[in-house]
Amino acid sequence: MTNNLIKRTMRATAYPLLIKNLLNAPVVDDPQQQIVYRDQMRFSYAEFRQRVCRLANALSTMGVKPGDTVAVMDWDSHRYLECFYAVPMLGAVLHTVNIRLSPEQILYTIDHAEDDYILVNEEFLPILEQIKGRIDTVKSYILLQDGQQQPETSLSFEGEYEELLDGAADHFDFVDFDENTRATTFYTTGTTGLPKGVYFSHRQLVLHTLGVLAAMGTPAGQGRFHQKDVYMPITPMFHVHAWGFPYVATALGIKQVYPGKYAPDMLLHLLAKEKVTLSHCVPTILHLLMSHPNFAETDLSHWKVLIGGAALPKTMCRTALKKGIDIFSGYGMSETCPVLTIAHVTEEDLNEDEEVEIRCKTGRPMPLVELRVAGENLNEISPDGESVGEILVRAPWLTQGYLKDRRNSEVLWNGGYLHTGDVANRDKQNYVKITDRIKDVIKIGGEWISSLELEDLLCTHPAVTEVAVIGLQDDKWGEKPLALVIKKADIDISEKELLRHIRGFIDKGIISKQVVLLKIQFVEAIDKTSVGKINKRLLREKYQPQ
Q1: Distance (Å, rounded) from C-alpha 80 to C-alpha 74?
Q2: Which of 195, 231, 409, 435 is an S-S bond match for 450, by CB 3.0 to 4.6 Å?
Q3: Quick count: other Cβ atoms within 10 Å of Cβ 141?
């Protein structure tokens, strides 16, 4: 066989890794499985496939073509899930707009991504009203709404989402194209400077889906994601595709529940009513659920919850385990699609403290992830569970760089590895544990103190409900730690009592003696980023002595 014939045969038989192919098995295996939106909508996978086709037809009629960018501004919904598929399956790019950014930052992301069309929930129309005169690229808008009442707005629409779908055909012939075609774009939360655009191809999203399927589907029991599960995201769908789990859930063909705007009572209601068995969220959201009056009476004994975005506090882990929740950590970032590691418990005969320790670690790398914990000159540090270095990674689904930003892209990929900016150690069992962000480590007299470790120790006091530790500049020591503490309403405590609590850990050698410089400040609230993480950059600016 000649080389040319081999090439023609390969082209004829190639099966590109396209998002459309994640839809194949669920429709065949269980077309009557359900997708649920709050208490408002419920339909089968067979109907979901038809709705994806209807959306593709509606968008095509509007003029959407391969290479266009279609933006979505919505809460977590069935509409968003349909956009996850229909938009990239057309060869267009899906821009998931972070609706928690400021109007000026949203304007920047719309213009920077060069959005051609925007699907917007009626709740976010006031944002677009503020910036509409400065949006340069958008040709048309589609209205997303749960009710029927016409919103008051000066914007004109191609139509309302459900009405457009009702008028479109339920079949669409999605053609094959290059699997390296860009499928999605979204923007980092912009804690420093302007938000940075990250982007992923069809190939990367499919490989990430398969990687998560392998990592989550192979444990014997704890933390396993399987076809009998019921999935509900509690991570915004604009944030790294809700960590990629909607793609995984759809590929598995399992029941999916979308909660819309996050409200603790609705989330707990759906967890109980729909018998949700797997979710993922940041610690802040789980804290809100745990603080709600309905939490105690809600049966969550079959709920698995993957915690990411910030360290899982051991006190939160213990509370969840007592409730019967299978809680464990995962790790990734916007630039990594995002999942890199998962903290499954594989060891047996562990006591409670040992099990909590593993569940709160950053976890082990999942298949196809090459992860290094490196010091200077990118040399790997010893896997002794103590020595620390920066997490560097390579995997087939990492962003190739920042959109239209060559300089920061080169910094991100310095030396051929993606630099996460996270400081961690690694033990002989291959568990990684993040000890801090490089920029959040507190440097006292030349010694590095982990703000995360100090937060975890402060949270062990029964009067503490939430805490953030930051380093403030100091002429003598370089930095001094400040703990911003939210107290429980029913327990009173003084600064001296909380410092005595920490002194006990210093005396036992659990944390550095330099922590005696710690200051405590009680606050009513702690500033968060748009995705619910503690915003330490803003806190340092806010509390730095003038």
Answers
A1: 7
A2: 435
A3: 22
The reply to whether 78 falls in a domain is yes
Q: Which residues of 245-261 are buried (b: 16+ CB within 10 A; e: fewer)?
A: bbbbbbbbbbbbbbbbe
Q: What angle do CA 331, 336, 341 make, to 5 degrees?
A: 30
**How many angstroms separate the CA atoms of 205 and 242, rounded?**
12
Q: What is the pLDDT of residues 75-126, one digit of tens each?
A: 999 999 999 999 999 999 999 999 988 899 999 999 999 999 999 999 999 9
Task: Provide the number of structural domains found in the chain.
Answer: 2
Burial 483-511 (b: 16+ CB within 10 A, else e): bbbbbeeeeebeeeebbebbeebbeeeeb
Model confidence, pTM: 0.85
260 - beta bridge partners? 76
User: 97 with 110: CB under 8 angstroms?
Assistant: yes
pLDDT of residue 12: 46
Could you tell me the residue range of the domain that residue 90 belongs to? Answer: 47-195
- 496: domain CATH number is 3.30.300.30
- End-to-end CA distance of the chain: give it in Å, rounded: 77
Cα–Cα dist 278/376, whole Å = 39
**Residues in CB range of 439: below 8 A, 6 or more apart:** 421, 536, 537
- Nearest CA to 233 out of 223, 225, 243, 224 is that of 243
pLDDT tens-digit series, residues 457-474:
999 999 999 999 999 988
* Coil, helix or strand at residue 419: strand
- Tell whether the torsion through CA atoms of 374, 376, 378 and 383 is positive or negative: negative
Joined tokens for residue 328: 């464990």
In a domain, 435, yes or no: no
Examine the fold and report which residue of 195, 216, 243 is the final residue of a domain before the chain moves on: 195
Domain boundary among 131, 163, 195: 195
Please list the active-site residues.
188, 335, 443, 448
